[in-house]
Design brief:
heterodimer, A: alpha+beta, 4-stranded antiparallel β-sheet, 12 helices, 14 strands, 36% helix, 24% strand, B: alpha+beta, 5-stranded mixed β-sheet, 5 helices, 5 strands
Chain lengths: 293, 158
């Protein structure tokens, strides 16, 4: 099928884009990379009457270091740019490692960081990763801006705190502390397809090699990125032994997630995958933390 | 009728000026407006890869971009690779190694492989399988496509 007609605007500055959003409100949709929106428009699942295309706004495309050792990513930075950027490899190794797993080269040529997180698909890697890495998003409207932590940004299936007149303009990812480790494990029927379940783990060790901080977030395990609150509490302050990791994985899979059944997998199978994947992710993350002095 | 926008785009080295509706997909613009029917349309939602073309040298799904978004850019379609009398080395390799059967997926695979071999002139078999993972072929089982890409890489290195 073909998209229904729409009014088209291609602003060249953020200011101009915000004025279109302010004027059209809920009638407008923002077009970033288009790799989720355009398929939905082709099927007429979505029929926006106004489309505000961000692809001609150069100020939204960048990868910069920030003063605290972290990273700033402009919302229109394309997946392919993130994938090959040496600064990302150095400062956000989990992100660097994840990028080639996202869809296919043809999609990564177009898809954008801001577009992916704003779309808020709970099976998208960047959505859960932003939470696992304690990322923050800068949202702007005509009256100003606000920063929202990733773990407060996603509020439901394909739903975020973005107001219709707001635009996500930037993502900030903090630096990784010393003795930290990371991992993303996922299972998909076909490599690069949406994962049946994925687990992202970020951990750090103290001087005594005990778990200082731990964060684990699941994708495709609920309506939003599912944070393994109970599991990580079990790990903090503990030595990351196999027993501790297995116990945490068990709790994560049985208590921290809310998977549903669909044509691809039953909820029960997703819990099984979550258990296995969180074990593997934690093992790799703690091993890296031990090696990463 | 929707408002028309003026689109100026370079396709296979030739400059085109066309008035398009903003909702016209690049795949439909290439096929219907320019008559370049080498670009095939399979699923129209970004799964099959048959419509892959190069935008400023990078592979994209032409069904997931509006034609108007390519204003001022350069597109390469399968027609831009070689001609019947003068095939591109990748096309020669696909012919010699039987890298196609029905041919529906082939234009998308050829354009994908062109960009891939430019970045990675001497790929391993695993890297080739990874590179064509976004292109579905229902005939070949991929083995002869992989053989063809290995042969194409050899031809392009010499």
């Amino acid at each position: 099928m073909k998209p229904a007609p729409f009014e088209y605007y291609a602003p060249t500055t953020v200011e101009e884009a915000l004025s279109h959003l302010a004027e059209h409100g809920y009638d407008a949709k923002v077009l970033a990379g288009g790799q989720s929106l355009i398929p939905m428009m082709n099927f007429r699942l979505v029929q926006p009457s106004v489309l505000v295309d961000l692809n001609n706004i150069p100020e939204l495309s960048y990868i910069r270091p920030d003063e605290n050792g972290g990273l700033r990513l402009g919302a229109m930075t394309r997946h392919h740019q993130v994938e090959i950027d040496p600064l990302v490899a150095e400062r956000a190794p989990l992100l660097h490692e994840t990028m080639p797993k996202i869809a296919y080269s043809q999609i990564r040529s177009r898809g954008t960081f801001g577009g992916s997180v704003s779309h808020a698909d709970p099976s998208a890697e960047l959505v859960s990763l932003s939470v696992a890495l304690n990322g923050r998003f800068r949202l702007r409207n005509q009256n100003g801006e606000r920063w929202v932590p990733a773990n407060e940004f996603f509020v439901g299936l394909f739903t975020t705190v973005l107001e219709p007149d707001e635009l996500l303009v930037e993502a900030a990812l903090p630096s990784m502390p010393a003795r930290s480790g990371w991992s993303l494990m996922e299972v998909a029927r076909r490599p690069h397809d949406f994962a049946l379940v994925g687990a992202a783990a970020v951990v750090s060790l103290d001087e005594n090699h005990l778990c200082q901080q731990a964060q684990m977030v699941f994708l495709s395990a609920g309506d939003v990125p599912m944070v393994a609150h109970k599991a990580v509490e079990l790990l903090k302050g503990q030595a990351p032994t196999m027993e501790a990791i297995h116990a945490a994985a068990e709790v994560a899979a049985s208590e921290d997630i809310d998977p549903s059944s669909d044509i691809h997998a039953t909820a029960e199978f997703r819990r099984h995958l979550a258990n296995v994947l969180s074990r593997r992710a934690l093992e790799q993350a703690f091993k890296r933390a031990a090696d990463n002095k | 009728m929707q408002t028309l926008f003026d689109l100026g785009v370079t396709v296979n080295g030739a400059r085109y000026e066309h008035a398009v509706e903003p909702r016209t997909l690049l795949s439909d613009f290439l096929r219907h407006d320019l008559g370049l029917t080498g670009t095939h349309v399979g699923c129209e939602h970004g799964v099959c890869g048959a419509c892959t073309v190069l935008l400023d040298g990078n592979p994209i799904r032409s069904c997931l971009i509006f034609a108007i978004q390519t204003h001022g850019h350069a597109i390469t379609t399968v027609e831009g690779l070689g001609t019947i009398d003068n095939l591109h080395p990748i096309q020669e390799a696909f012919q010699e190694a039987h890298g196609l059967q029905c041919g529906f997926c082939t234009p998308g695979i050829l354009t994908t492989v062109k960009s891939f071999l430019e970045q990675n002139p001497d790929p391993s078999e695993d890297e080739i399988r990874e590179a064509i993972s976004g292109n579905l072929c229902r005939c070949t089982g991929y083995q002869h496509i992989v053989d063809a890409v290995i042969l194409a890489a050899e031809k392009m290195r010499t």
